[in-house]
Structure formats: C-alpha cells, structure tokens
Amino acid sequence: MKNTDADHTAALWFALLLTLANGSIDAYTYLARGGVFANVQTANVILFAIDASEGKTSAALAHVWPLLAFVAGMLLASHIRTGRAERHVRRPLLWTMAVQSSALAVIGLVPVSAPHNYVTIPISFLAAMQMGLFRRVGDLAYLPVATTGNLMRFMEAAYDGFVDRQPAQRRAAGVYGALIAAFVTGALIGALATDRWSARAIWIAAGLLAVTVVVFALDQRRRTHPGS
Known about the structure:
By secondary structure, the protein is an all-alpha fold. The protein has helices spanning 5-32, 41-53, 57-81, 92-107, 117-133, 148-163, 167-197, 202-224; strands at residues 136-137, 140-141. The protein has a two-stranded antiparallel sheet with strand order 1-2. Helix 3 runs parallel beside helix 5 (117-133). The radius of gyration is 18 Å and the shape is globular.
C-alpha cells in the first residue's frame, strides 16, 4: 500500500513526540540519576573507560549495567519485529509504548536516594526497544534516542537539497531539523523540570509517551478503517 500524506504526517508527529521524550529522559538521568546517560550508550562506553582507567570500579560498573540492558532491549525489539510476538499479543507495538509510559510513571516514584541502577537499567532497556522498533519517518531513517545521527543526516540532506537543488532532500532536511529541535527542546525541558521536581520530572516523558500511544492507536485505526 502506498504511503499517503496522512501516513507521513502521523509518522512525523510520532517521531517528534518520541524524540522530545527521549531528550527529556537523557537530561533527567544525567542530572538526577548518577550522571548516567540511560539512552545514549556511546557516552556510557566513554565514561566506563574513564572510570576504569582511574581505578573507580564501582563507578565504571554503573555504566556497564545500562549497556547490558540496552543489548537485552535490542534483542527483544528484534524478536517483536519478526512478527512472532503477535502470536501471543495483539498489536505488540502499541503495548510496547503503553508499557514504556507506565514504567516511566513508576520510575518517578523512586526516590533519588535509591540506587541509580534501579532507574537507569530499565530506562536503557526501554530506549533500546524504541531504537529497534521506531526509526523511520516514511522513507527516512532516524534515531529517537540520540541526535548525532540525525544531525549528520540533516547536513547531508541540506547539502543535497540546497546545493544540488534536490526538492526531496530539502523536505528531508526539514524533517531532520525538526527532530533535532525536538531533542534539544526535550533536553531543556528535562533539565528545568529535574531542577524543580527532581525524581518526579520523569513524569513529563511518561506523559509524552502516553500521547504517542494515542497517536499510534488513532493512526492504526485510520489505516484499518480508512472510511471511518
């Protein structure tokens, strides 16, 4: 079935909400949960290496557990993408988003005095599932949990669009620019909210993911019943 403008619009809104939520989550975990980036694993690799080189074993291990959780999340996402999960759960993608939103709501109840792994490990697991399951806006690839790849694609599309005068690439540059802006905005919101509400600031991301559940469900209904 050919993608329509409505399909692209719904996919873009979904991607923007996910990216906004994940920018907020990264700022939150760094500021309130032990300086760990639960979404962006490159940072955890670097911080692990730095702590290990300084002989800080406990601090180094704090960056290992989110990495392992991320690997587990990617494995589960790969399993869901094969369609095997539909044998046991109807609409697994919808349920995945609902579980993620609920998990973040619960995390907001965990005090900042608790061991940070109680929070960073499940968030890393959920972030991996998002990366594995949701990474396209129409025919454009993107990452909802980081911005480096999106920034690279933005510059490539902008060059092709405005230097080589390719209209499709100008549109792609607009999409990637919006995603980058959403991530930056989410990080700013997450930082300000964490400063004010501490552990409960994660509820903003939980609310954004709850909205993505509604957007996803409505889009699925539109596709299934196009005349309704």
